[in-house]
Amino acid sequence: RKGNVIITGASSGLGLATAKALAESGKWHVIMACRDFLKTEKAAKSAGMTKDSYTVMHLDLASLDSVRQFIDNFRRSDMPLDVLVCNAAVYQPTASQPSYTADGFEMSVGVNHLGHFLLARELLDDLKNSDYPSKRLIIVGSITGNTNTLAGNVPPKANLGDLRGLAGGVNGMSGSAMIDGGDFDGAKAYKDSKVCNMLMMQEFHRRFHEETGITFASLYPGCIATTGLFREHIPLFRLLFPPFQKYITKGFVSEDDAGRRLAQVVSDPSLTKSGVYWSWNQNSASFENQLSKEASDADKAKRVWELSEKLVGLA
Ligand code: NDP
To answer: Which of 31, 56, 87 to mutate to test the pocket of ligand 1 (most atoms within 8 A of CB)?
Structure first.
């Protein structure tokens, strides 16, 4: 049978390119888990995906109720779950004030980390129940959260501190909207959320790989400077960022190429190692990359996991 893969945020950018690559392979049925049903249908059509290669299901990661509703709907469909890709993200680099999810979490941490955490934690059971030979849970990471890289050293740098803001619910009411308890900074909130993504991948690996055989992986697909991720940035940035990445840093990757990279992590028989953060070199060959000190801190991962379980109602 075909494999079934859920991809969050498959309505544009990396998620859409990955959905397209997997659908075209003929080996995958893609469940596009998205907040805008119509936009996603249109995107799938214009990407040339055939009707029988995908299903659109509503998921708004800015609401834990919506996450639970999605899980319910998916289970009702009676499709087995073979691979889950946590890809959706928001990035608000120019926001001067935090905005909040339905549950009162700061938006970037709420969508990118907490919504995905509840989704992945719950769907782990579905992955366990699948008879697919190579089951995987993939959480998209980023170079920007890794302070052991040049890009990761552009201020404001990611830093989860002692997690006091996360412990307080990142709600900006009783405390700070930032994980480290500091003043709100939209770009930092995004980077912090990506550190959480990479920490959670490793914590899933430590807790569940041996018992379940599931492959847990993260990746940095390259700088896809043309996606909607930068939609909230100032116009001059949006104009100059793609050529800067193409000609100066040479980190630029097209949406199609990035989609093929993530599709590899979903289905390539040689990428089954668990607990790995994949990157690609200039020749587009994959390699196991090193995470920063903070993004590989096992102690911090455990604490983020426990605090997050409380915030999403799992503990
Ligand atoms: P896009 O903005 O193109 O895609 C983001 C996706 O997330 C969209 O489908 C968007 O939906 C969805 N999304 C946003 N908020 C929600 C929500 N509340 N509920 C459900 N879905 C939501 O950006 P990219 O393709 O660039 O980003 C994809 C991933 O790649 C992210 O995890 C990002 O961190 C990562 N990444 C990107 C890099 C880059 O250079 N672009 C580099 C490294 C990592 P909608 O269409 O409705 O807005």
So the answer is: 87
